[in-house]
Amino acid sequence: MEIKLGLKENWKQFTLLVLVNMLVGGMVGLERTVVPLVGTEEFKIGSDIVVFSFIIAFGVVKAFTNLVSGVLADKYTRKRVLILGWLVGLPVPFLLAWGNSWNWIIIANILLGISQGLAWSMTVNMKIDLVGPKKRGLAMGLNEAAGYGAVGFTALLTGYLASRYGLRPAPFYIGIFYTVAGLILSILVIRDTRDYARLESAQVAQQQITEEKFHKPDLLWVFRETSFKNKNLFAVSQAGLINNLNDGMSWGVFPLLFISAGVSLEGVGWIKAVYPFVWGIGQVITGPLADKIGRKPLIVWGMFVQAIGHVVIGLEFLSPFMSGLIGSILLGIGTAMVYPALLAAVSDTAHPSWRASSLGVYRFWRDIGYSVGALMAGIVASFFGLIWAVHIAGIITFLSGLLVLIRMKEKKPYE
């Protein structure tokens, strides 16, 4: 069968991958509202750092899995790695629902981190492979809209189920459906896309890359190039880390902060849901916008909008629920602006021959942000209170946007 690059030419497989990524995102949404409260109310954990330890474990494991996912994809095909991600994720909802100690919750999040690092990375790489260079922003917008829209929907649904039937096990039943459906779809209907990347690579001139680097870039070379040697990739990587620092902070802090402020469990569910939901759906707009106006404006202003969202959460003249809801909407808008633009910027800069590995390195730094955010929040909250974890995150986010403004230069994608 002849293969061609493009969204129109590959819309059926692209649509199936969007559906699969909705299921991948839903697995993260399982934890957004309920798990921190399981730690404080069911297991009676008094330390913020210990409560946030499940996020730290998830972030570290997912980050390192991202780092090797591109290498695994190039060696064993994208489809096999996607299936492996679902297999690793199968025990997760059972452990979350019935684990009888906090250690089982940590183990569930280690498995979830591996599963997400493999499965979500593959849906990203496979969509980029299919569409080619001209529609990357749109492709990433649709991919992340599906994933984070599902995160928001599931966070809201678990909050509702928890308020009606208790913190466990009812909210986690839907995770069993997600894992089984995702595994079946990945085995039966998803096709591998590595040949599409090879086709694009063959069409690209070897510009700005030496012959040796073009043919045999090892992971160490790609890690250095993506992490600090290439100014654009460095700017993108640090912005990705700070973006997910916000997510990691809010994941642990928001349920505890707003419950302590008198917000109901359903209200916390709405606050937790609106952030990833706006983040997800907004990317349907910001993804193609990144193709039209460039990556840098969306990244810079997206970081600034997130910083404003943190300020709103601290406003005392609003009720806790309203400040949380408005602040979360602004966080979602800002994240929607940066997320597809960051992924597309990496794809613009990295050559197709080492793009999967570069995306893995970028996603390593981005998802380390979960752990950094949770650790920062735990330490700051222990000394100054939960609200100061929000304030510190806002300051760091603003500085990150300034760094992108200064260091990053718009780059035309490979065509």
UniProtKB/TrEMBL annotation:
InterPro entries: MFS, MFS_dom, MFS_trans_sf, MFS_Transporters, Sugar_transporter_CS
Its membrane topology: Multi-pass membrane protein
Database matches in PANTHER family: INTEGRAL MEMBRANE TRANSPORT PROTEIN, RESISTANCE PROTEIN MDTM, PUTATIVE-RELATED-RELATED
Subcellular localization: Cell membrane
Lineage: Bacteria, Pseudomonadati, Bacteroidota, Chitinophagia, Chitinophagales
Stretches that traverse the bilayer: 12-30, 50-69, 81-98, 104-124, 145-166, 172-190, 253-278, 298-318, 325-346, 373-406
One GO molecular-function entry: transmembrane transporter activity
Domain Major facilitator superfamily (MFS) profile: start-end pairs: 1-194, 232-415
Annotated Gene Ontology cellular component terms: plasma membrane
Protein name: MFS transporter
